[in-house]
Design a protein that fits this description.
- It is built from 21 helices and two strands.
- The protein is an all-alpha fold and about 500 residues long.
- Among the domains are: about 190 residues, no CATH class; about 160 residues, no CATH class.
- It has a two-stranded antiparallel ribbon with strand order 1-2.
- Helix 14 packs across helix 19.
- It starts with 8 loop residues before the first helix and ends in a 9-residue tail after the last helix.
- It is a multi-pass membrane protein.
- This is Hedgehog acyltransferase like, b.
- GO terms for molecular function: acyltransferase activity.
Length: about 500
């Protein structure tokens, strides 16, 4: 977004006040629904005893969050603590060999947790894609990688490969798919970077160092090979002033967020309620809209905590990992919609930007988005929910370009040029409101269910019209103006030469 004139202060204060009151109002409705239905039969499997002394039960419907902070907590803390310890010893004694230490420790950790047959399977995929990369044909590397990735999404290949992992411990399936999926994406990044290298080839040892870096191995994020190679082989091990304080502060922040989510789960059952369609039909419009919004915010928080913990460890290793995902609250354009910056950067570098060029040509953009979401479908698995989500997001991304092209033509261009920047900002925010709710509806379809998404859309645009529709859209308009003001202030910080007076 370009730097626009600021809106009057009283107007921004009004928007912030409306937004704050609306959040409290929606949360109160969700709290009421949670408290009055705590003993509902459909809640018994997911709402379980929590804080005994306060008489509060806890929402345990999100198995992924429960896994992270119950079963998996001890394992991941032990493994990452060992990695940090050995990395610190190596950085003091032989910093030039730290990448080799990361490889050895990561390989041993994977071997210990999953067995030697699993390590053999991973190594076979690494050797296959390394061999293909020597040919230095980009499309061949990409097709081979996608075909290999598809073998973890369709039978009989899935059953055959998962037999390589012996034992029946609780985390077997999660670690299997996580390690294999991210391994293929990393191997594809290595192969494509090797194709771009003009002289010689990277060694297979570099690929193994890249792939078996333990903090990224099972759950990501994905750092492209070119960035990892430069950072892990950097000889300068000095830190910037205050860097350790920042890393410690981030660790404390993640702990605080975990506690906050734990408190939230005892008072608002935002994950369980959307699974009960009968209850949803008797829920107020405000509670339903709030549930849709809070579900997406929670999913972002979950991803931010998971990647944040891993990124904190990697920063201790002097790496600069991909940032946590962008919060759904600040997303009002499809071009910024991504929950995993690592995958986003990977797709942009090797598919979207490679095919789309400057993203100004309608046909090139269509081809680039179709191919990008095609790769995403292979990555996530071609389920009906994923296909529907990919279709609508692909359409939204292209529709934004078509709209931008249309607005740049006459008479719209001349009309906007006659407006003040503040008026232009207000008009654009109105259109962004519909974008925002399109993004919300498409993503709750993917994260929750089709029934929940349909019910929210029906209440928001049909049954709730005009009161619910107008009120929700106005609150969303206030939200977008607050976001735009934050972006404007950040842009002024990064480009002081463009600084304007705040009206």
């Amino acid at each position: 977004m370009g730097i626009k004139a600021a809106l009057p202060k009283y107007e921004l204060y009004f928007y912030s006040t409306v937004l704050g009151l609306a959040m409290v109002w929606a949360a109160s409705w969700i709290f009421q629904v949670s408290s009055s239905n705590v003993n509902r039969k459909t809640f018994k499997t997911s709402v379980k005893p929590g804080w005994y002394y306060f008489g509060r039960k806890m929402d345990t419907a999100d198995l992924e969050w429960m896994m992270w902070f119950s079963t998996f907590k001890a394992h991941i803390l032990f493994a990452l603590s060992g990695h940090v310890l050995f990395a610190k010893i190596c950085s003091m004694l032989a910093p030039q060999h730290r990448s080799l230490v990361y490889l050895v420790y990561g390989l041993l950790a994977v071997w210990t947790s999953m067995g030697w047959t699993y390590v053999t399977l991973i190594l076979s995929h690494c050797i296959l894609l390394y061999s293909i990369s020597l040919v230095k044909i980009r499309w061949l590397c990409l097709v081979t990688g996608l075909c290999t990735l598809a073998t973890f999404k369709c039978e009989p290949f899935v059953s055959w490969q998962i037999d390589f992992v012996k034992g029946d411990f609780e985390l077997r399936h999660i670690l299997f798919y996580g390690g294999c999926g991210f391994t293929i994406m990393r191997c594809m990044s290595f192969a494509l970077e090797n194709c771009g290298r003009k002289e010689g080839n990277y060694s297979i040892l570099e690929l193994l160092k890249y792939n078996f870096y333990l903090p990224f191995f099972y759950f990501g994020p994905i750092m492209t090979f070119d960035k990892f190679y430069i950072q892990v082989n950097r000889s300068d091990m000095t830190r910037k002033e205050g860097e350790m304080w920042t890393i410690s502060l981030q660790g404390a922040l993640h702990l605080g967020v975990v506690i906050m989510v734990d408190v939230l789960f005892h008072f608002m059952y935002i994950v369980t309620i959307p699974t009960d369609v009968k209850l949803l039909r008797h829920t107020s419009d405000w509670a339903l809209v709030g549930l849709a919004y809070f579900n997406l915010v929670y999913d972002w928080v979950k991803a931010a905590v998971m990647f944040g913990v891993i990124n904190t460890v990697s920063r201790l290793d002097h790496l600069d990992p991909p940032k946590p995902p962008k919060c759904i609250t600040v997303l009002y354009v499809f071009a910024e919609t991504h929950f995993d910056r690592g995958i986003h950067e990977w797709l942009c570098k090797y598919v979207y930007n490679y095919l789309g060029g400057k993203h100004t040509n309608v046909l090139e953009e269509l081809v680039a988005t179709l191919c990008t979401y095609g790769v995403t479908i292979v990555w996530l698995g071609p389920s009906p929910a994923v296909l529907t989500w990919a279709f609508f997001n692909c359409f939204g991304l292209n529709f934004e370009l078509w709209t931008a092209k249309l607005v740049s033509m006459e008479p719209f261009a001349s009309l906007e040029s006659t407006m003040s920047e503040a008026t232009s900002r207000r008009i654009r925010a109105i259109f962004n409101v519909f974008n925002f709710w399109s993004i919300v509806l498409y993503n709750i379809l993917f994260l929750n269910s089709l029934d929940f998404a349909k019910l929210v859309a029906k209440r928001l645009f049909l049954k709730g019209f005009p009161i619910t529709t107008v009120v929700v859209m106005f609150v969303t308009y206030c939200l977008i103006q607050v976001i735009k003001e934050t972006e404007r202030r950040q842009a002024l910080i990064y480009d002081p030469g463009e600084r304007r007076l705040i009206q």
